[in-house]
Every structure is written in C-alpha cells, then in structure tokens.
Amino acid sequence: MKKSLVLLLTALPLTMALSGCVVSVGGDDGHYGYDLGDREYENRKKIARLQLNASFADVQSRLGVADFNEVYQKDGENVQVLYYRTNRKHKDGITTKDECTPLIFRDGLLVSWGEMAYAQL
Q1: Does domain 35-119 match CATH 3.30.1450.10?
Q2: Most CB atoms closer than 10 Å: which of 32, 50, 55, 59?
Q3: Where does the UniProt annotation place the signal sequence (predicted)?
C-alpha cells in the first residue's frame, strides 16, 4: 500500500505539471482578436461621409488600403475602382468583392460608389 501511495503522490504533481493551458485569442473569425465586424462598420461610417469629387489621395488617406483595386481606361478616361469591405456574406474570414462597396474614380476624382454605380460602368 505504501508503494501505491508513493506512486500516486509522485504521479499527481507530474500530471498537473504536464496538463498545460490553452488561451483563446479573438473570436471565431480566425483573425486573432481583429473583429471584421468593427472594420466593416468603420468603413461604412467613413464611406457615408464621403463627398463627390473628393480626390483619390484624400479618400485613400481616410479609408486606408483597399481590399481590391482595379484600374482601366474607358472612353479615354482613367477609371479606378477601390473596394472596401462593408458587409460579411460568407463566414470564412476571406474578403470577396461581393462583401465590399466599390468606390469609382474618374481621372482621380470620386464620381460614385455602391453596387448600382458600379453596374452602370
């Protein structure tokens, strides 16, 4: 019985020392503490404050780096479209264009934004 007691008293502290601890950081979006919902809300607030004819540089300084960026020429004008994430549709942590609001610039000035505006290009 003494051997069993000694073995138990030896094994118990070793078991406790090896058990470890797991710390969960962030939510279930896989971004380790960065909430995409906060980013989407902030982007929507910033886009709501935009003014037509704002310069590309001004908009980019307010909103930061776009999630997607397209540039092309149409009818002799430079057209640039910046996409900012504004609403989650897929709970996979990956940003897609259908989760973004497009901002359309012609020759460096903001001329429109939103899905309807983009569809009319």
Answers
A1: yes
A2: 59
A3: 1-19
